[in-house]
C-alpha cells in the first residue's frame, strides 16, 4: 500500500531548463501505472526563488518550493536538468551546493547535460565514474576526473550519483527508475523496449502488468 505522504523526488528548475531531458523520468515517476509501489513518489519542483521560470520550450513553471526549503534527508532524489545557465557558476551555485548536500547525506543526485558540467566544475565528478555530452566538453570545466569519464555508456550510475548525456533522456530515466526501485526489473525491461527500442511488444507487456 502506498504511504499517505509520497516521498519527494526534487526536480531543480534552472532558468531555460531543457524540458525534454527529464520528461520521461518525471512523467513516469508521477504516473502510478506499472510501478512496484504505486504512488510512492511525487515530483516536487525546486526553484532558486518562488518566481516562475521559463523552460527552453517556452513553458512557464512555478516552483513548488525553493532551494532553502529542501532537506536531503526528506527527499528520495534530486534531479538536475540541463539549461543554458549551468556554465555560469554564480547563477546556479545554490543548486550545486544543494547537490553537494544530497551527496554528502547519501541521497541520490541525477544530472544530465549542462548540469554535469556544473558538478564537474565543483569537483563532484573527480572521484566518481560519470558521463556527459563529450569528454572535451567536461574538460572545459577544469575538473580532475577525466580518467573516470565513461565513453561507452550514455548514462552512468556510481553510488548515489547518476550522470547522462543530453541526447539520451530515456537511458537517464531508466537509471533514475533503477535507483528509486520504481519498477520491477522485468517491467523496466518492457518499458525500455517501448521507449528506447521503439518495440511495440513493450507496450503490450506493460498493459499486462497488474
Tell me the layout of helices and strands:
Elements: E1 7-12, H1 19-30, E2 41-47, E3 53-54, E4 60-61, E5 65-66, E6 75-80, H2 89-104, E7 109-112, H3 114-121, H4 135-139, E8 155-158, E9 161-164, H5 169-180, H6 185-195, H7 200-207
Parallel strand pairs: 1-2, 1-6, 2-5, 6-7, 7-9
Antiparallel strand pairs: 3-4, 8-9
Structure description:
The chain contains seven helices and nine strands; from the N terminus they run E-H-E-E-E-E-E-H-E-H-H-E-E-H-H-H. The chain has 210 residues and is an alpha/beta fold. The strands form two sheets. Strands 5-2-1-6-7-9-8 form a seven-stranded mixed sheet, sandwiched between helices. Strands 3-4 form a two-stranded antiparallel ribbon. Helix 1 packs parallel to helix 5 (169-180) and helix 5 (169-180) packs antiparallel against helix 6 (185-195). The longest helix has 16 residues, at 89-104. The radius of gyration is 16 Å and the shape is globular.
Reported CATH architecture: 3-Layer(aba) Sandwich
Number of helices: 7
CATH topology: Rossmann fold
Task: Report on the biggest sheet.
Answer: 7 strands, mixed
Mean pLDDT comes to: 96
Q: What share of residues are in beta strands?
A: 15-25%
Q: How does the helix and strand content classify structurally?
A: alpha/beta
Question: What is the C-level CATH assignment?
Answer: Alpha Beta
How many domain units?
1
State the fourth-level CATH superfamily.
Class I glutamine amidotransferase (GATase) domain
Helix content: 25-40%
Beta-strand segment tally: 9
Amino acid at each position: 500500500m502506498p504511504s499517505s505522504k509520497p516521498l519527494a523526488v526534487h526536480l531543480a528548475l534552472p532558468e531555460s531548463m531543457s524540458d525534454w531531458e527529464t520528461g520521461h523520468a518525471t512523467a513516469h515517476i508521477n504516473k502510478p501505472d506499472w510501478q512496484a509501489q504505486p504512488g510512492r513518489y511525487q515530483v516536487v519542483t525546486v526553484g532558486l526563488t518562488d518566481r516562475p521560470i521559463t523552460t527552453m520550450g517556452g513553458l512557464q513553471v512555478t516552483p513548488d518550493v525553493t532551494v532553502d526549503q529542501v532537506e536531503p534527508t526528506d527527499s528520495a532524489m534530486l534531479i538536475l536538468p540541463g539549461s543554458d545557465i549551468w556554465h555560469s557558476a554564480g547563477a546556479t551555485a545554490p543548486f550545486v551546493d544543494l547537490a553537494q548536500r544530497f551527496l554528502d547525506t547519501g541521497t541520490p543526485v541525477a544530472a544530465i547535460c549542462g548540469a554535469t558540467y556544473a558538478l564537474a566544475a565543483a569537483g563532484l565528478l573527480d572521484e566518481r565514474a560519470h558521463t556527459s555530452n563529450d569528454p572535451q566538453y567536461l574538460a572545459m570545466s577544469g575538473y580532475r576526473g577525466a580518467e573516470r569519464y565513461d565513453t561507452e555508456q550514455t548514462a552512468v550510475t556510481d553510488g548515489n550519483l547518476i550522470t547522462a548525456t543530453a541526447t539520451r533522456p530515456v537511458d537517464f530515466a531508466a537509471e533514475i527508475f533503477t535507483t528509486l526501485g520504481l519498477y520491477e526489473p522485468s517491467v523496466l525491461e518492457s518499458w525500455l523496449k517501448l521507449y528506447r527500442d521503439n518495440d511495440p511488444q513493450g507496450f503490450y507487456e506493460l498493459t499486462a502488468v497488474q
